[in-house]
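hey
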């Protein structure tokens, strides 16, 4: 895992929610270490350039070109690596998300009750530790729907926490698709830490229709990513679940203000909303194929 003294933090105010996917891809192309959606915009961490102001000017121009000339507002700041690590560790402890599911950092202890599943995840530059409401919402929904033997697809896997939780809760196998190589280094460490490296395959790529078509059918799809990325992929997710009505899709990483657009596109793709999980300004949902019981 690359460990610089400090990171350049870029925050891009979205010109419109529909451009989230394109902006996210642009930030990754600029060298961003994963992308997180926050109320103020899309945020990523970049290795420190020699001239940050020139880098940001170039980033602004390249993102604008990526969006066919749409102006893009890019703010930047420094984040000391020691401060970042300390921020994560300060006050972090085990989180019991459901009766049987607990997520904790490796340096903490948890006296597990019979039947409880405890997942150890070290917070690094990959998003996904249980400290974000989107991850917690996705995990709560996951615990209620994962079935023994499920084949699971985890899109934008980050730290692979969702894949780990799925197989620890009974799924037969998981495919974790993640574009960011640094996130995948962290994910592999987490797989080994939790003893599930033989049941989870990491695919370093951007998820799209062609890639998912090659992977065959899945019983459960997890997508804790940007709403602007999720929405155009909804028809792809429906195809990945096969022609029947037994599949399940969990979407997260969605602001409550964006949920109506996600629901509209999900219904157009052949899904219905079965259950939602809301925390702070974030919205997660379990979507089932139309016609399912």
């Amino acid at each position: 895992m690359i460990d610089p003294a400090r990171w350049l933090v870029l925050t891009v105010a979205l010109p419109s929610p529909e451009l989230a996917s394109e902006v996210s891809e642009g930030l990754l192309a600029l060298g961003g270490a994963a992308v997180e959606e926050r109320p103020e915009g899309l945020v990523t961490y970049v290795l420190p350039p020699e001239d940050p102001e020139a880098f940001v000017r170039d980033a602004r121009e390249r993102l604008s070109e990526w969006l066919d000339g749409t102006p893009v507002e890019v703010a930047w700041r420094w984040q000391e690596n020691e401060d970042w690590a300390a921020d994560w560790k300060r006050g972090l402890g085990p989180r019991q998300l459901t009766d049987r599911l607990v997520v904790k950092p490796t340096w903490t202890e948890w006296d597990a009750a019979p039947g409880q599943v405890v997942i150890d995840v070290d917070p690094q530059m990959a998003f996904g530790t249980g400290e974000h409401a989107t991850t917690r919402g996705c995990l709560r929904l996951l615990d209620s729907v994962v079935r023994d033997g499920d084949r699971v697809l985890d899109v934008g896997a980050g730290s692979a926490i969702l894949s780990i939780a799925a197989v620890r809760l009974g799924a037969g196998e998981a495919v974790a698709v993640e574009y960011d190589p640094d996130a995948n280094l962290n994910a592999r460490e987490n797989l080994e830490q939790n003893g599930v490296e033989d049941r989870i395959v990491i695919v370093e790529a951007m998820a799209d229709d062609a890639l998912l078509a090659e992977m065959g059918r899945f019983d459960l799809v997890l997508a804790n990513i940007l709403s602007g990325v999720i929405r155009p992929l909804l028809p792809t997710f429906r195809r990945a679940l096969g022609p029947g009505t037994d599949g399940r899709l969990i979407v997260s990483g969605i602001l409550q203000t964006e949920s109506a657009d996600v629901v509209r596109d999900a219904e157009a793709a052949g899904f219905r909303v079965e259950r939602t999980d809301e925390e702070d300004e974030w919205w997660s949902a379990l979507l089932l194929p139309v016609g399912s019981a």
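The mean pLDDT is 88. The longest strand covers residues 271-279.
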